[in-house]
Amino acid sequence: DLPGHGRSEGDVIPSIEGMADWVVKALDASGQDKTIIVGHSMGSLVAFDVAARYPDRIKHLAMVGTSIPMPVGDLLLDSAKEDKDVAKEMVNFWSHSQAAHLGGSQVPGTWMIGKLGRLLERSGPGVIYNDLKACHDYVDGVERSKQIQAPTLFILGEDDFMTPVRNAKELVENIPQSSTVMLPNCGHAIVNEAPNEMLDALATIV
Known about the structure:
CATH superfamily: Alpha/Beta hydrolase fold, catalytic domain
Largest sheet: 4 strands, parallel
Low-confidence stretches: none
Helix content: 40-55%
Number of strands: 4
Number of helices: 11
CATH topology: Rossmann fold
Strand content: 5-15%
Number of domains: 1
Order of helices and strands: HEHEHHHHHHEHEHH
């Protein structure tokens, strides 16, 4: 996990570029010369920025539930800045498709909405705001997409409200070696809603 996330200690990093630099340092520390990098949502921006600015380090890039730019509405940003619970509720609600709100998890006994809700509840003070603002402020992605040299796989949810498919169109067009897997009836929380399809897609690049 990035600093300040999950079980990782340290202060959160306020920019996508800073997170990407940290990932490269982690690769250096673990002796990874060239690797496959996969990211979902904010993580997709981090993975993308690594591939754009450190092309010699990446063999293959996979972006899951992504769009560039990735703007965040004022209502959500303001609520997250004040660490209001409603910010977590909005993220959880908008991350799932209408079908997911009715159930139907591929993992027996798993409640998709509750699962993400618990993860969001574990976020430390200011973490959600930091991440949302970092996504919102990352505005050079379309131009940087022209620097991507690695083959790139896009895994997108057809019913993604957080990062609409249309916002990834120019990005896909700018990367010569790109392919797209479109998941029907799937929202932004692809890891929750379509884990099997996501794994099948990722298996094609590893």
